[in-house]
């Protein structure tokens, strides 16, 4: 289940991609399939080991085109082990709401992104997330849980403040909002409750089968109750000495 829409976020074969806070690796796998040179990074060593196994399985099955590469590694989002201007693309999906120093994470992402590179950031949307917080303290008051709820303009302002230039936004996963509302209402750890089990089966069926009807319903509902807010931006080229927007020529300070 992808949150980033690659029709709005172009990815070219050979692009070097950082999936920051990759979790189970869903976006990293898609980038690998598209021919990118992918680095999937997360602080959770157990998840990284699983992602590495899936990368190996994908390579063995011939799921990635020639020239694509994939590496899974543990790391700290606030101290990325990469030189400046290392990546063409950075993706950070459903991560920033967990990190106290979100400005520091933004600064690190901008540092390792090449001028002209693209970044995709996804976070829980304010409205649906607010409902979850109202229904359940346990939903967010846990170690490693959500520590903030972003309003769209707040996130975009922070991106601009970090030197990024946003160019597009949308919402995703409307069908998932009611699922989390139900879980919060009956208890976030109560996976055996009948409404939770029934709705979960619906979501799994939808993800696996991608039926036209539910895809159409979700597209209609995304602007209203989409669970995720997605923002895309570029890192501008540095202005030249002359003050235009073209990259500075080699040999000029």
UniProtKB/TrEMBL annotation:
Residues 18-121 form the Methyltransferase type domain. This is Class I SAM-dependent methyltransferase. Its EC number is 2.1.1.-. It is an enzyme of class 2 (transferase). One of its GO terms (biological process) is methylation. One of its GO terms (molecular function) is methyltransferase activity. The keyword Aminoacyl-tRNA synthetase does not apply. CDD domains: AdoMet_MTases. Signal peptide: none annotated. The keyword Cytoplasm does not apply. Keywords: Methyltransferase, Transferase. It comes from the Bacteria.
């Amino acid at each position: 289940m992808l949150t980033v829409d690659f029709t709005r976020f172009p990815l070219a074969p050979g692009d070097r991609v950082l999936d920051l806070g990759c979790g189970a690796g869903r976006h990293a796998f898609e980038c690998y399939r598209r021919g990118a040179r992918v680095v999937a990074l997360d602080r959770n060593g157990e998840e990284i080991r699983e992602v590495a196994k899936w990368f190996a399985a994908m390579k063995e099955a011939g799921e990635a085109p020639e020239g694509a590469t994939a590496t899974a590694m543990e790391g700290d989002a606030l101290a990325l082990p990469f030189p400046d201007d290392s990546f063409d693309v950075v993706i950070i999906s459903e991560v920033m709401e967990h990190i106290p120093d979100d400005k520091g994470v933004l600064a690190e992402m901008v540092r390792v992104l090449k001028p002209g590179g693209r970044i995709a950031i996804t976070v829980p949307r304010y409205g649906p997330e607010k409902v979850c917080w109202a229904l359940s303290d346990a939903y967010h008051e846990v170690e490693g849980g959500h520590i903030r709820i972003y309003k769209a303009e707040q996130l975009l302002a922070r991106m601009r403040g970090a030197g990024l230039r946003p160019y597009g936004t949308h919402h995703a996963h409307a069908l998932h909002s009611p699922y989390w509302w139900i879980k919060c209402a009956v208890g976030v750890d109560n996976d055996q409750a009948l409404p939770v089990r029934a709705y979960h089966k619906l979501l799994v069926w939808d993800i696996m089968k991608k039926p036209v009807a539910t895809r159409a319903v979700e597209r209609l509902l995304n602007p209203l109750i989409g669970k995720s807010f997605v923002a895309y931006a570029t890192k501008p080229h540095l202005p030249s000495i002359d003050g235009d927007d073209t990259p500075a020529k080699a040999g000029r300070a």
